[in-house]
Specification:
The protein has 250 residues and is α+β, with helices and mostly antiparallel strands. 16% of the residues lie in helices and 56% in strands.
């Protein structure tokens, strides 16, 4: 008898609390996905370097051996316009700071172009005069992408493909000495003001209410054009995770 009572209570509890979710799922699957999103994220950023100029090879090799990934962040607003229940177009605006890091090198002379300085790694036991640099390219980006939204229950998966038109603002370099004292420096560089970065994203929307959902996504980015106007061909790459809140428009 006790088992029967517990079973009846559990079924009643499930029906009461699952009903709003099922109703929301039904409305979700029927609606066209017009929405405004607030999104924040982070990624691991790299850059691919190449050159056809033999005079640049030694500097290029040094840059490749001294440099590593950097953790980047981005934040912004997206607007999604639904073409039908499955396809949507996305645009918006966001700020990002892709870049890279340079570890355990001699001090860089910022009166010169940072990419023309040969950075010589110090000996493994030599901490005197050792510096680490983090290079941040500040961008305002406008995405333009196509999104496919799949049928789903509590989680509604989607796939997205597009291009970020990226407007370069400035290069900021964070310098850390052996005692981890930080100095921020703005550096003038010969960089294209307008750049194009392709991206692929997969993610999922999670029901909060009839018109609000949370979402998370994984993205891979690759720059289509060279970032700078010199002998080096530089293209930014990254892989990252973003989270956000989506408000559906009536």
């Amino acid at each position: 008898m006790k088992i029967l009572n517990v079973t009846v209570f559990a079924l009643l509890f499930a029906s009461i609390f699952s009903s709003p979710i099922l109703q929301a799922q039904s409305k979700w699957n029927a609606k066209i996905s017009n929405s405004i999103d607030v999104v924040v994220g982070g990624d691991l950023g790299f850059r691919r370097l190449s050159t056809t100029n033999p005079l640049f090879e030694s500097q290029l090799l040094n840059r490749k051996t001294s440099e590593a990934f950097k953790f980047n962040y981005n934040a912004g607003l997206n607007f999604t316009y639904g073409l039908n229940r499955r396809l949507a177009v996305k645009t918006g605006v966001r700020f990002s700071n892709p870049g890279y890091s340079i570890s355990k090198v001699e001090k860089i002379d910022f009166t010169k172009d940072i990419n023309e300085v040969i950075k010589v790694p110090l000996g493994p036991g030599d901490r005197e005069g050792f510096y680490t640099y983090k290079v941040h390219y500040n961008f305002v980006q406008v995405p333009l992408g196509i999104k496919y939204i799949a049928e789903g229950g509590f989680c509604k998966p989607y796939f997205e493909l597009g291009v970020l038109t990226s407007f370069y603002g400035k290069t900021r370099v964070s310098e850390f000495d052996a005692n981890e004292v930080r100095t921020d420096i703005n550096v003038e560089e010969n960089i294209n003001r307008t750049n194009f970065i392709s991206y692929i994203s997969v993610g999922g929307n999670y029901i909060i209410s009839d018109n609000v959902s949370a979402f998370t996504q994984i993205s891979v980015n690759y720059q289509l054009n060279s970032l700078r106007n010199d002998a080096a061909d530089e293209r930014l790459m990254s892989i990252g995770l973003a989270i956000g809140v989506k408000q559906y428009l009536q």
